Structures are given as C-alpha cells and as structure tokens.
C-alpha cells in the first residue's frame, strides 16, 4: 500500500492535482492525520509537489506514544533471537526493494539514484549488524564475590525511545535508530524529516512485513511542535537526534534546543548537531541525562606534497561535490601544504567535468540542493567569501540544467585563498562548495583544523606513514581518514563525531548505540544455606 503510493514518481499533472498525504503509523496501522495543516514535499529537481506531510496533532502523537508503551512489555520479553530474526528478514526485504526506496529518495531529496542506493545500503548495514546484536548486549558475571554470593550485570531496554531525523539521509539515519533500539527490546516513535518522509514510511512497511509487531515502531510527522512534544513526553525515555543547529523556528538552535529540552526532562539524548556539549550545558537545565547527539560539521582534508596526485584529486572531487555537498561528512575544506597552485588548477579541471543534473538522469554526478532557501543560503555564503577576499576559481552559481530549469541546482564551486576568519569558512555551507586554504607545514594545517569548532571528520592525503600517524594522533576529529576522504565507520564501530559535531557520551550504532538504548542492572544473589543464628548486623556488608 505504502510502496505503491510512494515508490514511484507519479505523473506531474496528477501530483499537482492530488498529491498523496503521507500517513502516520500508529499501533501498526497507517493512518491519515486529522490535522488540516500540512507541508508540501517538493521534488528539488522539478519543484513538483510529491506529497504532503501533515503536522500531526497532539492527540495523534499521544496515541503513537501510547501504542509504543503498550507494545513494550511483550516486545521486551520477546526472545532476542526472535527480534534478531525479524532484522534478518528486514535486511532481505530492504535488498528486495532497494530500487524503489532509492527512487523515492531521489524524488524527494534530489540526490542521484546511485547515491540514493548508497544511502539505503549504509542503513542496511546497520540492520545487518542488528542481526547479531545479542553479542553486544551481554552482561558480566563474577561468581562468589563473597561466600555463596554471585554478582552479575544485565543490559535491559529502556522503554519507549524516539528519533528525530534530518533530510540528507532519508533512509540511512532512520536505520541508524529504530533497528538498534528495537533489537535491544525498546519500542520506538520516529519523526522523519518533513522534507523527505517517504523512505521512513516505506521502511516501516517493510519492518512490519518482516514481522515487527504492531506498536513497536510508530511514525509521526511534523516539525518543531512534534519535536517539542517528543522532548516533553514523560513516557519517552530516550531521544536520538541528527540534524543541524541552524537558527530556526522559535529563534532556537534546533539541535541545542532539543538536546537541552529533552535532557531537562531526564531523558537520554543521542544527538548529532553543531554545538559542543559545553555550549549545550550552558543553554539547558541538564539534569540526570546521558546524551548522544550528532550535529553539523566542517570536514577538512590535508594534502601533503607527497600525496598520490590522481587518487587525491579524485577523492577531493568525490567527497567535496558528491550528494551536492549535503553530507555531514562532505569534505568542505582542503588545506594544501606547500605549493597549492598546481593542485588547485588540476582540482578545478576535474570538478568542471562533473555533470549536474536531476538525480534520476543516468549521467548525473550531482543533483540539486534540497530547497530554494537552502540554495539562497549557499549562494549567500559563496558571495560572502568573495566579498571578504576569497578567489572564485570555479563558479557554479549560474548553472542552468536543460529540462530542469526550476531545479535548485548549484554547480561545483571552488573558493581559494580562504582564511579562517571568513564566514564561508566558519559556517557549515552544506552545498557543492569546496574551500581551499594553504599551510606551510603539516603542523600549521593541523592547527587550522584543531581551531575549528567542528570535529566530525578530517582526512590526510600522503604517502608518508609518519605524517599520517602524527595526523591520526594529534587531529581533533571524531572520524579520521588516511587517504580516505569520507571515513564513515561501518556499524561494528560507531559514528564518532567530536567537538561541536557531537554532544553526549554514547555514539550512534555499534557497541555505543547498544549502550545508549539499554541500561545496566546489577544483580547480587545469595544461594547458600543461611545460618539460622548469628543475629542481625547493621554494619555495611563486607566480604
Ligand atoms: P534540521 O536541524 O533543520 O532538521 C533536523 C530535524 O529537526 C528535522 O526533523 C526537523 O523537523 C527538526 N527541527 C528543525 N528545527 C527545529 C526546531 N527549532 N525545533 C524543533 N525541531 C526542529 O537539519 P536538516 O537541515 O534536516 O539536516 C542537515 C543537518 O544535519 C546538517 O547540519 C548536517 O551536518 C546535519 N547532519 C549531521 C550528521 C552527523 O552525523 N553529524 C548526519 C546527518 C546530518
């Protein structure tokens, strides 16, 4: 039912006349929201309305949380092997419907079909990992801590958890969240991005086909009101957030706002955004929380003179302009150590050959950016760089894509002579814009990077193991690439952002993800013939 509606792009005329309304998922049923208010989901390549996403009412939100709460006791008691088997089935179904999911992502988000497949695939890997998650949930056991007394620890699920998603990975990021939470025995309320909600509901339909019981996964749509409701709800025990900290609604910074509001309610928060934990602490009344939050980024690459020329140029172009620069791990700044001129010119020649087109076109290397306001913001940041003295080596601002004249396209853009005080450097641009900086030494390059407030990823291109090792040790970034431009860890590790790109203690997926969605219980048991006498001792027990 959901796949039929959302997996293919309907004809433009029918879309404009009657775009489908994206349903909520409550207690195992896809239901239309009663809310009259909705937001258009717009194809960024054509401006056609793909669907409409409702601003879910508070009553409907409460119903979703109640469904999750009701499903919890039986789900937590479902054997872990059964929960894992559902993930086995889910990974099979995601593979089966990969093309349909990718088409929905390209239609709603704009990235190329090949990149959309990558989006689904990197989420699929988390589902695959969840198939063996029992290993990560094992507790510990120490026998005979005192005579006849044993102590053991157990990892237990938390209850109802919630996830709030960004637009840039409509499949991967929901799959970072609910498969891990559910396999640990939790139930879940997911709030997809209002810009591209289709993949989430398609994945939910697959999860139910795989055997996920009703109420274990629920979906509610909306924007800040629904997010605030998630943060405030007393039945939600943990919140995972991935997104920005752009000043938006309510003059708050989305990430910071959610982090402080949810943790003030005593919830665990898992959060990827742009501000440091310390900054977030100052903003919020943070009590009794354990947080995990992923936010924005400014990822640097350092190129040493001994780097392999071809491989490095290919890596810079792919990581700088792939997905139109809308990846939290996009390489947005390159620091050339030593002579930069010849690198910059070759980079420009290679970037010029990239094909900008609608993501559905087979020759597209990069598609449009998500929205008109996003495009305006990117153009403003490019201009601010030029105004403050940067040189526009490649200008993609006025690109026109035949057949898609209304799309939000920006061609690959390269700014050189960028310095650390420029706004285009300080802000996350989140578009196909690569900034070039210069340094005289590796130390100077690392110093630039370490002074930047963000710390998601950083990479180095070199043939020197000594330089690479120094970089790996001294660089302040959560994910380090050595001749690898986008070092996103596979699910048996965790996504380990640093500084202002991450707030919290427990990262997404991997061992840390399991720890986030579970809590420890420690049991001390005594099995011995209890002495019939000996009296009562009020002293602290010792062994
Ligand atoms: P966004 O912050 O605008 O939206 C993320 C979610 O928060 C959405 O579901 C949105 O509805 C909600 N939201 C936004 N403003 C809010 C507010 N004021 N109050 C309550 N809720 C609010 O982010 P986006 O533009 O969708 O995603 C792009 C951003 O996400 C980039 O900054 C990118 O770096 C970041 N990101 C980070 C990672 C990472 O792992 N570090 C991964 C993906 C994306």
Automatic annotation (TrEMBL):
<keyword id="KW-0520">NAD</keyword>
<dbReference type="InterPro" id="IPR016161">
    <property type="entry name" value="Ald_DH/histidinol_DH"/>
</dbReference>
<keyword id="KW-0560">Oxidoreductase</keyword>
<comment type="similarity">
    <text>Belongs to the aldehyde dehydrogenase family.</text>
</comment>
<protein>
    <recommendedName>
        <fullName>methylmalonate-semialdehyde dehydrogenase (CoA acylating)</fullName>
        <ecNumber>1.2.1.27</ecNumber>
    </recommendedName>
</protein>
<feature type="domain" description="Aldehyde dehydrogenase">
    <location>
        <begin position="293"/>
        <end position="523"/>
    </location>
</feature>
<feature type="domain" description="Aldehyde dehydrogenase">
    <location>
        <begin position="30"/>
        <end position="270"/>
    </location>
</feature>
<dbReference type="InterPro" id="IPR016162">
    <property type="entry name" value="Ald_DH_N"/>
</dbReference>
<dbReference type="InterPro" id="IPR010061">
    <property type="entry name" value="MeMal-semiAld_DH"/>
</dbReference>
<dbReference type="InterPro" id="IPR016163">
    <property type="entry name" value="Ald_DH_C"/>
</dbReference>
<dbReference type="InterPro" id="IPR015590">
    <property type="entry name" value="Aldehyde_DH_dom"/>
</dbReference>
<dbReference type="InterPro" id="IPR016160">
    <property type="entry name" value="Ald_DH_CS_CYS"/>
</dbReference>
<dbReference type="Pfam" id="PF00171">
    <property type="entry name" value="Aldedh"/>
</dbReference>
